[in-house]
Structures are given as C-alpha cells and as structure tokens.
Write a structure and sequence with these properties.
The protein is about 70% helix and about 0% strand. It has 14 helices and two strands. It has a two-stranded parallel sheet. α5 packs across α8, α6 packs across α13 and α8 packs across α11. The radius of gyration is 24 Å and the shape is globular. The termini are far apart.
Length: about 325
C-alpha cells in the first residue's frame, strides 16, 4: 500500500510488483492485493493469540499507518514545520513498531502499566521514528540528485520536460524542507501545495542548504535513536538487549543496508552492496548553479505546458477536419 502511494516511475520508485509487472497500473493492483492479504493474514495471526488487548493495540497501530499516510499525501491544513513532520513520522511508522514492542512485552507477561511495557513501547516508537526519518532523507536526496542530473543534461540538449510530480517528489513535505520552513516561513506554501515551477524548487533547495537542514534532520534522527537506547536501560543487559542496541545503530546508517535482508547471505553474513558514487557538497553547489542558469534561460518546461500546446494543435486539426467535411458537403 505504501509504495502505491509513493510510486512514480520517472523516479524509479515502487516495489517488486511494479518491477515484475513492468507497469505502474498492473503493479499497483498487485501491490494493493498483496497489502490486503498481508493485513488479513496479520489479523488472523493476531486473533489466534486470544488476547483482546494485543488485538486492540495492533488494530490501532494499523489505523495509525493509514492516517499518517493520508496526512502525508493529502494537502495539509495543520501548521507546517519540523514538529508536524516528526509527529507524522511517529504516526505512520513509529507507532507500529512501538505497539509491536509493547505487545511483545505484554505477551512475555508484563502488565500494561509496568515500566517494562512502557519502555518497550518507547524503544519501538523511537526506533521506528529514527528509521523513517533517515529513510525519508535518503529517498528525497536521491530523487533530488536525479532531478538535478536531468537539469544538468538539459544544458546540453537545450530543453527538458517535467511534470509536477517529478518536481514535487524530491523535496515536498520531506524532513529537510520542513526543517527549513521553521527558519524560512516563505517555504510553507511550497511544502503545502507543491512547487509551482523549477525556480521555486531551486530556491527551496538553496534555503535548505543555507540553514543546513540536512544536518539538522540527521541530528533529530540521532536524538531519537538515543531515546530508544535510553529506554533499554529498564531491562537487564543480555544478548537480546545488545542486539536491540545494535539495531538502533543500524537505523542511523545513511543507506540502512544492514536492515535489509537481501544484503545477507544464507549463513546470515552481511554482504555490503555496491554503492553508487555520491556527489560531494561542492559538486552539488555547482550543479545547483547550473540548474539556476537553465531555469533563467527557460530550458525547463512543465509537461502541462507541452500537453496544452498539443491539445491546442489537436483542436486546430479537428476544426480543419470539420471545415473540410463541410466544404465537401
């Protein structure tokens, strides 16, 4: 379900279903069916526990995921900024992990109001929040790099065509932008409604760089990971608690590759994936300058403008056909 909302082929997003079926439409259908099946299966397994409290907690967590995603992908009426972004992350991701950890404590025999159950929820909530903040940052920075590369290549080709989704995905409602909104209120409209043109997107990126928003978001993630570790102090030191501490450290890694099962062999040994070469800070600044030049020279056109021209041409062709048929009669 999540990747159906995120799917945008120009940015190479989506999940295995989209790649397998080579179509965002067919892939979306399979994704929805797979998501429904997983939710139904999870409900069956929850009911088999014969613990109504656990079922109630996890049902609330599933509801929170949907609510958080709707808040993320629909125009937002609430006050924008870092606090609202982190709250959204807690709702759409943190609460699920927090509730899962809490239920594990309940099934282990701890009372719901016990320090252990509360600590378990606190650990899961902050672990999930850390994971999602870092994941959001990784995705938005990668997409921005792709868009920037397209802008640079347009300098050679002379023109590039975009649509609003392709422009909005890299930055809109991302953590770095929300961090910058608190320091540059003029960015709130773009964060709420999207970038009206490439000039506004480039300006937003400049302000993000100016206030060091990316570093600020990384600091927020690190603080949340520290909260998760602090929650574990309630439990005695053990192999299990040390594993949970290691897991928290993995969530802070930029690529989070150690959290992905595909990067482990059959014996459980981590195999580091090949990582593409990233741009340095200087290279990104230079690329941003090139993008600004291209925007000023009108190298970049919105796809709506192109489609509008095509529609006008189509209307003229239709009128010419009608006139020709009239003359023949």
């Amino acid at each position: 379900h999540d990747t159906v909302l995120e799917d945008y082929m120009a940015l190479e997003k989506g999940n295995a279903a989209h790649r397998m079926y080579s179509s965002s439409v067919a892939g979306n259908k399979v994704s929805i069916l797979a998501g429904d099946f997983l939710l139904a299966r999870a409900s069956v397994l929850l009911s088999s526990l014969r613990n109504t409290q656990v079922v109630e907690i996890m049902a609330g967590a599933l509801e929170a995921i949907m609510r958080g995603q709707m808040q993320l992908h629909r125009p937002m009426e609430q006050k924008l900024g870092l606090d609202s972004y982190v709250t959204n992350v807690e709702v759409r991701t943190g609460q699920l992990l927090g509730s899962g950890c809490q239920c594990a404590a309940l099934m282990a025999g701890y009372e719901s109001d016990s320090p252990e159950a509360k600590a378990a929820f606190e650990y899961g909530m902050n672990l999930g929040t850390t994971y999602q903040i870092v994941r959001d940052l990784q995705a938005t920075e990668e997409n921005y790099s792709k868009l920037l590369a397209k802008m640079q290549s347009a300098a050679d080709a002379g023109e590039a065509v975009y649509d609003p989704f392709e422009m909005n995905e890299p930055l809109q409602r991302a953590g770095a932008l929300m961090f910058a909104v608190d320091r540059h209120p003029q960015l709130a409209e773009s964060a709420r409604s999207g970038f009206k043109d490439l000039d506004s997107l480039i300006e937003a990126r400049e302000l993000i760089n100016e206030c060091k928003a990316v570093d600020g978001i990384k600091a927020v993630a690190a603080e949340r990971a520290e909260r998760a570790l602090k929650a574990l102090d309630v439990f005695e030191k053990s192999e299990a608690s040390e594993a949970l501490r290691t897991l928290a450290a993995y969530t802070l890694e930029p690529t989070q590759s150690r959290l992905q099962r595909v990067n482990y062999d059959a014996d459980g040994v981590f195999v580091a994936p090949a990582s593409p070469e990233g741009k340095s800070g200087t290279q990104l600044v230079e690329a941003l300058k090139d993008a600004k030049k291209g925007a000023k020279l009108n190298m970049f056109n919105m796809r709506e403008q192109v489609l509008d021209k095509m529609n006008r041409i189509g209307d003229k062709v239709q009128l010419a056909k009608e006139k020709l048929m009239g003359d023949q009669k």
